[in-house]
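Protocol step 4 of 6: structure prediction from sequence.
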Amino acid sequence: MNRTVQTKIEIAASPAALWNALVDFSCYPQWNPFLRSVRGEARPGERLALRVCAPDSPSVAMNAEVRTVEPNRELSWTCYWLSPRLLAGDHRFVLEIQGPRKVLLHHGETFQGLLVPCLWPLMEPRCRRGLEAMNAALKKRAESGQR
């Protein structure tokens, strides 16, 4: 059984500025309230070590593999907790370019695994709030020109 959380936010920044903030994983601890740490690089097949901190939840260490890297367009990875069979998620950022300094960011995650049916009532609202908090922080960072 798959379950999806999808968010979107309009960002008044160039696609390149948004992309640069998104893939500069080393700076995530400075600004990102949801993905507190991402170690690795935005390259297909690259292994990532994530520390996820959803609202009202303890932080959780996860492993991931980068799936899609299309500069200024899309970044995605598949992550899992303990085992991909128990709980896995396909995390995706899609930049919909609406002008030279206007991007609609689609940000979401699709979950699958044996634990999803029983954990979904807790996961969905916390994940949604985490994605939205990250979106707001990313918007602030990209619009201010920080990397």
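Step 5 (inspection) to follow. The domain at 3-144 is CATH 3.30.530.20 (Alpha-D-Glucose-1,6-Bisphosphate; Chain A, domain 4).
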